[in-house]
């Protein structure tokens, strides 16, 4: 059964799968934190026809997420440009593919969805809810926006007065201490109306939005203005750089983590959800002190036998992690003497086959003062290349150093 924007689509079957990881019922600080928001982002699909290679890629990605990520994901996110020409038969192909998913699938619009000069075909995708809409997931207020319906088609990105008013109202009603994530097709700076750009950028800054997740660029990119993390995931259907895959994104008590998973990379796949990498610090308080909690999620169908972390180089001693009642691996870490200002943290998981999966971040050690940055709503605050995390930094796509786009085959 597929759940699209909170609604069930008939004609599909949920996959029942017992999770064999041990659950440790014990009092600890990680239990108080609860489970982080964790979702998978499948970049712009640009679906054309069933014979295209990128449609096969979509089927493979969805099958992989279903078999390897079951029980670990809160939803799948499609950031617009779902159908390359906005045609009904292209959306029917997407609907067929999404029957592989048993978690909610949240879909927004892109300029290619508006190619028919109407979103009627887009909203023919089963159970797609009218945009904008909001949902709270794992304590995070998630707001999904339409940047294309108010325009005339193509990259005429607009929100419109009614949607901006809706967004301002929604943000004003978010309880204190609740993090916010916005989902829209492109950077706020790509809005064609200067007044809309200014208003959206001001709302994001005023309400200290934690995460703004996008498509459109066709390349992986992260930007950080010191408060908000801007994340873009490369296209699934038009391949400018690197392999096809998905990004895994988490929001863990204000800490944003992001990692790209190529389709052909093996499992288990590890994502450290806390603490923050120094490149993704949203404020100085996210630097680590003498003691801190390490948290991670592990995707994989095989039973996870062991998870460990270490600080510093690969010859540092391994420290065991344990899995808590909400499915998160955790441990309390202590800074080693003389720790570097940007301290490597590695988490490694091994499953029942003996295969390892590893994720590494570099932590900012307190006292640490992030570089002041202007809230521009653009890639002006890009963190640049981060190749081990899936960001090449070459910006091959329609936004910047573009070359002609072409569907995969």
Would you mind describing this structure in some detail?
This protein has 409 residues and is of the alpha/beta class. The protein has two domains: 237 residues, Purple Acid Phosphatase, chain A, domain 2; 87 residues, Immunoglobulin-like, CATH 2.60.40. The chain has five helices and 21 strands. Strand 7, helix 4 and strand 8 form a beta-alpha-beta unit. The chain starts with a strand and ends in a 45-residue tail after the last strand.
Nutshell version of this structure?
This protein is of the alpha/beta class and 409 residues long.
Determine Rg (CA atoms, Å).
Answer: 20 Å
Q: Could you please say which CATH topology of the largest domain applies here?
A: Purple Acid Phosphatase, chain A, domain 2
Strand neighbour order, sheet with most strands: 2-1-5-4-3-12-13
The major beta sheet can be summarized as: 7 strands, mixed
Strand content: 25-35%
- Number of separate strands: 21
In the CATH hierarchy, what is the architecture of the largest domain at level 2?
4-Layer Sandwich
Structural class: alpha/beta
> What is the terminal-to-terminal distance?
29 Å
Task: Estimate nothing, just give the exact number of structural domains.
Answer: 2
């Amino acid at each position: 059964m597929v759940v699209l924007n909170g609604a069930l689509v008939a004609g599909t079957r949920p996959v029942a799968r017992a999770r064999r990881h041990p659950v440790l019922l014990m009092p600890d600080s990680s239990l108080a934190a609860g489970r982080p928001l964790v979702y998978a982002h499948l970049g712009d699909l640009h679906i054309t026809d069933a014979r295209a290679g990128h449609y096969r890629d979509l089927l493979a990605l969805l099958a992989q997420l279903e078999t390897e990520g079951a029980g670990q994901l809160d939803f799948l996110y499609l950031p617009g440009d779902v159908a390359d020409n906005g045609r009904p038969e292209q959306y029917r192909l997407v609907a067929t593919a999404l029957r592989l998913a048993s978690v909610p699938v949240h879909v927004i619009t892109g300029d290619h969805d508006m190619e028919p000069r109407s979103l009627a075909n887009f909203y023919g995708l089963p159970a797609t809810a009218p945009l904008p809409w909001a949902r709270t997931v794992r304590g995070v207020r998630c707001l999904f926006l339409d940047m294309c319906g108010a325009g005339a088609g193509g990259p005429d990105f607009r929100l419109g007065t009614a949607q901006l008013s809706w967004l301002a109202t929604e943000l004003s009603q978010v309880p204190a201490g609740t993090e916010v994530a916005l989902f829209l097709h492109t950077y706020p700076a790509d809005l064609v109306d200067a007044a809309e750009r200014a208003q959206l950028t001001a709302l994001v800054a005023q309400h200290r939005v934690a995460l703004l997740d996008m498509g459109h660029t066709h390349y992986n990119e992260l930007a950080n203005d010191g408060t908000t993390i801007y994340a873009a995931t490369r296209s699934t259907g038009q391949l400018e750089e690197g392999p096809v895959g998905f990004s895994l994104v988490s929001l863990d008590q204000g800490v944003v983590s992001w990692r790209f998973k190529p389709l052909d990379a093996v499992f288990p796949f590890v994502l450290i959800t806390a603490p923050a990498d120094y490149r993704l610090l949203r404020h100085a308080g996210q630097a680590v002190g003498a003691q801190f909690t390490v948290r991670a999620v592990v995707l994989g169908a095989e039973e996870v036998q062991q998870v460990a972390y270490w600080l510093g180089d690969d010859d540092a001693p391994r420290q065991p992690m344990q899995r808590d009642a909400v499915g998160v691996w955790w441990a309390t870490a202590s800074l080693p003497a003389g720790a570097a200002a940007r301290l490597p943290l590695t988490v490694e998981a091994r499953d029942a086959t003996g295969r390892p999966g590893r994720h590494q971040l570099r932590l900012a050690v307190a006292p640490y003062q992030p570089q002041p940055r202007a809230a521009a709503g653009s890639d002006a605050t890009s963190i640049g290349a981060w190749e081990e995390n899936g960001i090449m930094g070459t910006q091959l796509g329609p936004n910047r150093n573009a070359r002609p786009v072409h569907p995969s085959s």
